[in-house]
Structure formats: structure tokens, C-alpha cells
Amino acid sequence: MATSAPRVAAVDCGTNSIRLLISEIRGPKPSDIVQIRREMTIVRLGEGVDASGKFSDAALGRVRTALERYADTMVAERVTAVRMVATSATRDASNRHEFFRMTEQILSRVVPGARAEVITGTEEAELSFRGAIADLPADKGPFCVIDLGGGSTEFIVGTESEILGSHSAQIGCVRLSERILHTDPPAEPEIDAARAFAAEKVAEVRQTVPLRKAATFVGCAGTFTTLSALALGLEEYDERAIHNSTLEFDALRVLTAQLLRQTAAQRAAQPVVHEGRADVIGGGCIVVDAIMDEAQAATDGAASSFVISEKDILDGIVFGLSEQLHLEG
């Protein structure tokens, strides 16, 4: 009697959202991995952490609700291995032990002893890189993958076989919005201050990452994928249309300027903008603008577009779980 292919789950809990990917491992190659489910929930775990240094009870409650639902899904889908990673907000919170205790209580229903783990900015970048370039032709490299999150943005330059440099910049759509963009829509002095702060943080990337060597710039995570959906004029979010789409810098600057002038309610009225992202995507736009400036400066103007990837850290985690299963087998 044939045995069914094992299923694994990856969970990523960031500053703004918690996400789940369940995949079936049908063979030893990345092409043998089949996506079963991919979900995203806005939980705003990092809400207020930049100012208070700790998670709020409300934020932990939102994560608990979402993770309980994900655990139910993992059990129903017969998941046998799970890895949950926690990134920027969790590295910064003084009461992170409460978060980890809660994740172990919930994930142990799926795999005994499973719990979230904090990963470094370097490992976060490497996992995102591996996922983001999975469907890109090798001859388009070297790649610069940019994973723009709520609290931090990871930059990594490399090829399929070699990482040339990585950096975790402490800037993201939630961190920038909470710290500087207090009015709705943002006032010009706030925008100017946010641009200066973003430029300073992004400029640090060139100290450790060889951006000049990148032939293709790849954007992943919610700010980039939402911008792609808007640029494509989609009536509903469609990851198949967004994945591997191209955003030209010139057109993107027009779009980010438009979003910055809108209120959160006006952004949320657009069908592809998640209501939990509407109030922080203005901050994300400012970070994207800073990234475009830095990419063009580093490449003497050669960089002119992003390729948008729907694959990211979750896919990198699944690749690692697949390799572990085959090593153990």
C-alpha cells in the first residue's frame, strides 16, 4: 500500500502579519514541493513595540487567535513537521517569553514540543532569498532580494550557489508609520522626516551588501505585492498575476506618491489593499522610494525595475524542512 507524501508547515510571525504555508513533499527536488495552502492574517504584533519595548496584551491575543486557527488547519491537513519563525518585533520585545510560551502551547497540538524561534536578520534574509529566487532563471542573477516587513527590511545579494552579502535594516512600514507618520494622510513635514530617516537606514546597506553586483532586484512581502496588484489594476488579489510581475521604477514612483496623498480609508477602499495594511502602506511606500534611490545610486543608474515574488521566507523554510526530511529518510 502506497504511503501518502508528507506535509510540512512554515509559519512566519512578523511585525505586521502572521502567515502560514503548508506544502506537500513529493520528492527530493524543489520542483517536487507542492503548495497546499497559503494564508495571511494581519495581527500587528509589533504595535507600539517601538515605543514601549513590549508586546501589548491585545497584540498577543490577536496572534493567539490566528495561530489557533492555523494549528487547526495544520492538524486537518495532516502536517507532520512545522517550523515557526519570529522576526523583527520579537527580537525587540522585553516580554517575548510570553509570546514563545503561547506558541508552544498551540503548536504542540501539531508536533509535540514545537514552538516559535527567533531568527537573526541574517538567517531571515537567507531564507527569504532562497524562496524569492526559486522561480527565477539563474542567468538573471546575481539577485538582490529585498524583503520589506513591518519592523525591518532584509537585503541580500547572491546567486543560486553563493551569498555575496546581507543586511537587516531596522526600518519597515509599521516602524516608520508609528514613529513619524502620525497624521492621515501624512503631512509634508512628516513625509520629509520619514524620507530622511529611510534614506539613512537604507544607505547603511551598501556598507555590507554589494548592491552594484546585482543584475535583478527582487521585491517580496506585502508592501511590494500590494503595489504590484495596484499597478496591474487587479479587481481582486491574484498571486498568480503578481508573482514574477515587473514594476518599473518610474511608474512605481508615481504610484507611491499617489498612495502617500491618500487617507487610510481611501487606500482601504481599493479591493487589493488589505484593511490591515491601509494605514501603514504609506510608510512602506517611503521605504520603497528609498530603496529605488539607493539601487540606482549603487548601480550608476542601471537598476530600473523590481521583479515581484510571491515566494519568500515561508518557501525558504519549507525547502529546509524538505531537505531535513530527506536526510532523515
UniProtKB/TrEMBL annotation:
Residue span(s) of domain Ppx/GppA phosphatase N-terminal = 33-294
**Annotated Gene Ontology MF terms?**
pyrophosphatase activity
Superkingdom, natural source: Bacteria
Give the InterPro entries listed for this entry: ATPase_NBD (IPR043129), GppA/Ppx_hydrolase (IPR050273), Ppx_GppA_N (IPR003695)
Name used for this protein in its record: Ppx/GppA phosphatase N-terminal domain-containing protein
